[in-house]
Amino acid sequence: MRTMFQGGWIVGHDGDTHAIVRDGVCVIQGDRVVHVGSSYKDTVDRTIDTTGMLVSPGLITTHVHPSNNTTNFLFRDRGRPEARASNYMNWQMVRRDTTRYKPDERASVLFGLGQAVRSGVTTAVAIGFRGDPGAHIDVIDELGVRAYTGPAYRNEVFYATDDGQVDHDWSEERGERGFAAALHFAETYDGAAGGRVKPLLCPGHPDTCSEDLLRRTAQRAQELDLPVTVHAAINLVELGRIRERHGLTPIELLARIGLLGPHTLLGHSVFLSEHSWVGGPGSDIDLLGEHGATVSHSPLKYLHMGAHLESLRRFIDAGVNVTMGTDLPPADMVGEMRLAMLMSRVADRDFLSGDPRDVFDAATVNAAYALNRPDLGRLAPGSKADVAVFDLRQMSVGAVHDPIRSLVEDGSGCFATHVMVDGKMVVEDGRFITIDEAEILATVQRDGEAMVRDIPNWVWGGRAPQEAIPPSYPPHSSP
């Protein structure tokens, strides 16, 4: 079947860079792009009118944890303000010998990945799933997204003591078991879901994995030609622990191990030696650039915690391959691009510091490079038929001069009207055609309420939900 997106602005690729074709066409045949240009003379089976719209390569999120969004609420648990950007521990750390309410896994994954797809994402690096691998793949297949995924593994897990302190539990056997499961997954599920699923290795963090485990991860990834994703330089706790153990920053440790390079996606890498919260010594950004390393930046998560990456321009100028993630719901890639751009301007006090081109590249060609997939992140003959269409005919946009600037500076992922993955439509006219949104949202709401009610059973201190996550306003008192 041959489908043509006709009209509007087409984001083609000339071999070196994206290039805009106004009032152009993009033609899809099967799972490939066959033509991008100003016109097309051959017959097509279907024409989609994209007048006033931006026809973009599918966006790529390089960091997402598909889950029910209720986990977000405890990020701002006021009982531990000293956490300072290690707030993820508030949700991860249960008290020993307790268990949390477990939400419906299928609905959680469809919701977490579906948010991203709904904002124009066609490829997701879905990190560290739990449970049955086959069931996880089935959900990805049901949604229709392209995914790089694999089970997470590490030596150390955390528990909370009754007074809110961190209780560390290190196990060599845990790390070995997880690593073996990750390699088994890579061998078993490579090419699943019609070729849309590809494996990657997901060690936890430089401080939760032994140096030996990280080193063997690097070796096996090279032998098997697998990408790697690892959270690195994500908070001051990790930084302090690595300096105490090794006398290095997390980035310096990963360089020594062999885990810096274009195909290792470093989750966040915010608290580098140059960051204002750290204040040196060291030159982590230059080290990242020397290795051509890839950083996955998710600005929304850190802004919620009062921190940010600071100068995006400094990373780019150093030669770091910057990509975009959607670590915290809502997984809106357009929103994440805007935040990255604006916060770079704030950090540098320079309105030229953050540019729409930089963040659009981060969400497309830079991410494709990190995954070693030159057939993704661009619209050119021979590339995969992964397409996102954004309707720019919005009151929040108005006149369009540069469609990329309009999308990044004025747009939203909600502008996406069509999302095509591997030549198959997943979102059409702004609605999913692969899943039932109402069903998923009803399940997420039901599970979310149950998860909040369950907070006293596992959160440290046995606190009530309104103590751990105070409401913005008190409930109304009825007469």
CATH topology of the largest domain: TIM Barrel
- Domains, number: 2
- Total DSSP E strands: 24
CATH homolog superfamily of the largest domain: Metal-dependent hydrolases
Q: Which structural class fits the helix and strand makeup?
A: alpha/beta
Multimeric state: single chain
Helix content: 25-40%
Instruction: Tell me the strand percentage band.
Output: 15-25%
- The CATH architecture of the largest domain is Alpha-Beta Barrel
Rg, alpha carbons: 22 Å
Question: Main beta sheet: strand number and arrangement?
Answer: 7 strands, mixed
Instruction: State the distance separating the first and last CA atoms.
Output: 64 Å
Low-pLDDT stretches: none
Shape: globular
Structure, explained:
The chain is globular, with a radius of gyration of 22 Å. The model has no long low-confidence stretch (mean pLDDT 94). The strands form six sheets. A seven-stranded mixed beta sheet has the order 3-2-7-21-22-23-24, covered by helices on one side. Strands 5-4-1-6 form a four-stranded mixed beta sheet, with no helix packed on it. The chain folds into two domains: 2-51, Urease, subunit C, domain 1 (Roll); 59-371, TIM Barrel (Alpha-Beta Barrel), CATH 3.20.20. It has 479 residues and is an alpha/beta fold. Helix 8 links the parallel strand 18 and strand 19 (294-297).
